[in-house]
Amino acid sequence: MEKDQIDFLKNLINTPSPSGFEEKVQQVFLERIRDRVDQCYKDVHGNAFGVVNPEGKVKVMLAGHCDEIGMMVEYINDQGYIYFSTVGGIDAHILPGKRVLVHTSKGAIPGVIGKKPIHLLEEKDRQKVAKIEEQWVDIGAQSKEEALKQVTVGDPITFDAGFEPLLGGRVAGKGFDDKVGTFIVGEVLRCLEKDKLHCAVYGVSTVQEELGLRGAKTSAFGIAPDIGIAIDVTFASDCPDIDKRKVGEIALGKGPVISRGPNINPRLWQRMVNIAKEGGIPYQVQAESRATGTDANVIQITREGVVTGLIGIPNRYMHTPGEIVDLEDLEHAIKLLVRFLQSLEGNEEWIP
User: Fold this and answer.
1) What's the mean per-residue pLDDT of the chain?
2) How many C-beta atoms lie closer than 10 Å to residue 98's C-beta?
3) What are the CA-CA distances from residue 91 to residues 130, 230, 235, 319 (Å)?
4) Of 209, 288, 323, 331, which one is the catalytic site residue?
5) Half-sphere exposure of 270 (CA within 13 A, CB side)
6) N or C, which end of the chain has less CB nearby within 10 Å?
7) Prior bond to 4 cis, omega within 30?
8) Is the pTM of this model over 0.85?
9) HEC secondary structure over the chain
10) 16-39 pLDDT tens trace
11) How confident is the model at residue 127 (pLDDT cuts 50, 70, 90)?
């Protein structure tokens, strides 16, 4: 992967964007694509769009959500400790001791998530997970008044965990769910050559997926695409204690996942598989036996219905500050999508 691409991905990961607070990361996305698209804009929901060849015969929507899980300041007690609610699905197991950033109007304030030490717990409580309301953020304030000089109720909170290269082309960090999707959308837009396209491509960095696929719902309604492809992460099963009988056999570094099931148009799935085979692009297949928990869910049932696909990037330790992906999977996903878009003539038959 080229240095400018890694810098783009790193910038996405290091820019805080809990659901509902995506403004800064959308600036990163738009700045990356601005000189390579025919149009770029945002809507009132906060979705960011890049359009290539808007006069194309058919409209294709690519969607990757830019929001990440996080927390929000809920209450500050008299001693200056900050109690919080969660934004998206956070595992309470992993929170104690984590370093966090409270994003305020004055900038990011560092803090630590605290709870009662194990030494002081009753034996019966040591086997329990501390509830969210039994944990707090300690920013070092000595009183409510001191804390309120820095922090306001409703301020977002994110994990203080950035982009970290690992061995073998793998990287760790927070928010790969689903900033890898935003990254891939942006890089596909940058790779497209207008004179090779018969389709109009609408690349969307969607918002508020973690709260119920909200940005994809509004942006798909506005675009009214003929074809919609969501790019998200999916569970890697190549680490201990993941039951392949439940999630399939999905590994880092073996290519993007082409999902198959009722949320996916079968003709589109087969075309993606054929393009991967013809182009020598490694890929994996995952069975999705019901509506997926991705932007593909709402794209498919927009207006009178949309020809829908889902490309997944294998991800370990999802919804933690230490998610891991393989950069080669991202590169192969970009190649697959570019080849797919270039293959469209505008007269394809998608009815099953």
Assistant:
1) 97
2) 17
3) 10, 25, 16, 8
4) 209
5) 8
6) C
7) no
8) yes
9) CCHHHHHHHHHHHHCCCECCCCHHHHHHHHHHHHHHCCEEEECCCCCEEEEECCCCCEEEEEEEECCECEEEEEEECCCCCEEEEEECCCCHHHCCCCEEEEEECCEEEEEEEECCCHHHCCHHHCCCCCCHHHCEEECCCCCHHHHHCCCCCCCEEEECCCCEECHHHEEEECCHHHHHHHHHHHHHHHHCCHHHCCEEEEEEEECCHHHCCHHHHHHHHHHCCCEEEEEEEEECCCCCCCCHHHHCCCCCCCCCEEEECCCCCHHHHHHHHHHHHHCCCCCEEEECCCCCCCHHHHHHCCCCCCEEEEEEEEEECCCCCCEEEEHHHHHHHHHHHHHHHHHCCCCCCCCC
10) 999 999 999 999 999 999 999 999
11) confident
Could you tell me if 81 and 226 lie in one domain? no
pLDDT digits (tens, 9 = 90+) for 259-316: 999 999 999 999 999 999 999 999 999 999 999 999 999 999 999 999 999 999 999 9
Residue 31 bears catalytic tag = no
Q: Using CA atoms, how far apart are residues 202 and 255, in angstroms rounded to an integer? A: 24
The pair of structure tokens assigned to 88 is 């998206």
Residue 157 contacts residue 16 (beta carbons within 8 Å): no
Residues 262 and 131 in one domain: no
**To which residue do tokens 């007269």 refer?**
347
CATH number at residue 297: 3.40.630.10
pLDDT attached to residue 315: 98
Both 155 and 206 in a single domain?
no
Give the separation between CA 120 and CA 347, rounded to whole angstroms: 69
Number of domains in the chain: 2
Shared domain check, 220 and 88: no
